[in-house]
Structures are given as C-alpha cells and as structure tokens.
Specification:
Shape: globular
Helix content: 25-40%
CATH superfamily of the domain at 96-196: Beta Polymerase, domain 2
Strand content: 5-15%
Largest sheet: 5 strands, mixed
CATH class of the domain at 96-196: Alpha Beta
Mean pLDDT: 74
CATH topology of the domain at 96-196: Beta Polymerase, domain 2
Radius of gyration: 55 Å
Distance between the termini: 173 Å
Number of strands: 5
Low-confidence stretches: 1-8, 60-90
Number of helices: 7
C-alpha cells in the first residue's frame, strides 16, 4: 500500500535539440499549383502601336477632277435627258393683250353676237381691256362664260371674280380676269346698259392685229 506522500515521478526533461515536426497544410483537390496559376494569368496588353497616318489629298485639283468625272457619267446624263422627268417649265404670265386674245378665241368657239374689244388703257383703273358680246339665251351666256374660265385656267391664271352665273336666268355674266373684264349679255340687256356708249372714248381694237 502506498502512502499519499508518495513522490511523483519526475517528468522527462525537454530536449531542445530535437526538431519539431513541421505542420503541413492540406490542399484541396481542385486547387491549382501556384506555378500553374502564374502561367494562366494573361499578361496586361498595352496600347497598340499605330502606323503613320496617311495624309488625305484634299487639294482643289483632285476635287475638281472628281466632280467633272461625276458629271460625265452616263447615268447622270441619261437621267437629265430622260423623258419621264416630272420637271415642267414655268408658265410665262400673259400680257393684257395676249389675255384679251385668249378670251376672244374662247368666245369665238360659240355663236357670240357683235363682239367688241375696248382698250381702256389710261382711261380706267378697273381694267385695261373690256370684252363685250351678246348671246341669244341665258344657257349660252353661262356656256361661253364657263368656256372662257376653262381656257384661262389652263393658261395658269385664276379669275379674280365672277358675277351672274349663279342666277337661274343669267342675263349678264361678268368675269374679272385682272387686266381684262368680260361682259356677256342677252341682246336686250346689252342695249339697256350700253357699255359701248359709256366708254365711247375707248378705241375699239381688233385682237387679231
């Protein structure tokens, strides 16, 4: 039986001369070795070197040459001479005398009676020419007035005003064409207003002269 005061065994002294075993770190199976990782890392790419910039030849001689070659191309020439071109020449405005001739020509297509063309240039501020004619019926008055309007419109003009055409019984039709004013009467109405007597100082003109 051993006593409580039994002396404990002395522990073995630590030997500092023996090296301690190095601890190794466990690496995961999917880990890439450091050397391999360095190989896969892409190198940073610096700015690409550009070659010398070629100067553009913008001298006036080259530009003129390009323009002249473009003008001489057959496609451009054919497009200019194409008959399908939508460009139309602008209409030249008619003079007062030419407009009066147009009115006389349109009225002569119907059976007008005693046509008169008065030159009011310098005598009236209303118009330079008066055309006066008679017809046998209201229907003929309207028909001649509409014909004159048609011919004037085809010439590129537009009547400034018209009176009498809306009446059921058209005894006097007046067309204001600007420099020319047209008066179409029934015979008795023309005698009643007597415009020729009112403008007796105005010379009568043959529009064909």
């Amino acid at each position: 039986m051993t006593s409580c005061q039994e002396i404990a065994r002395p522990e073995e002294p630590l030997d500092s001369s023996k090296p301690k075993p190095a601890k190794t770190k466990s690496t995961p199976k999917d880990a890439t070795p450091p050397n391999e990782a360095l190989k896969k890392t892409p190198k940073a790419q610096g700015p690409k070197k550009r070659g010398p910039v070629k100067s553009l030849n913008l001298d006036s001689a080259s530009l003129v040459k390009k323009e002249s070659s473009h003008e001489k191309s057959p496609l451009t020439a054919s497009s200019r001479l194409s008959p399908k071109s939508n460009k139309t020449k602008p209409k030249v405005p008619l003079s007062g005398r030419d407009l009066a001739k147009l009115v006389v020509s349109a009225a002569d297509e119907h059976k007008v009676l005693s046509p008169v063309l008065l030159n009011l240039t310098g005598l009236s501020s209303v118009a330079d020419w008066f055309y006066i004619a008679s017809l046998d019926s209201s229907r003929q008055v309207k028909s001649v007035a509409e014909k004159i309007i048609q011919r004037v419109t085809e010439a590129g003009l537009k009547p400034l005003g018209q009176e009498g055409l809306s009446n059921t019984e058209c005894r006097w039709a007046l067309l204001d064409l600007g420099e020319v004013v047209v008066h179409l009467f029934l015979a008795e109405t023309r005698t009643l207003y007597d415009l020729e007597g009112l403008w007796a100082d105005a010379p009568r003109v043959n529009p064909l002269d």
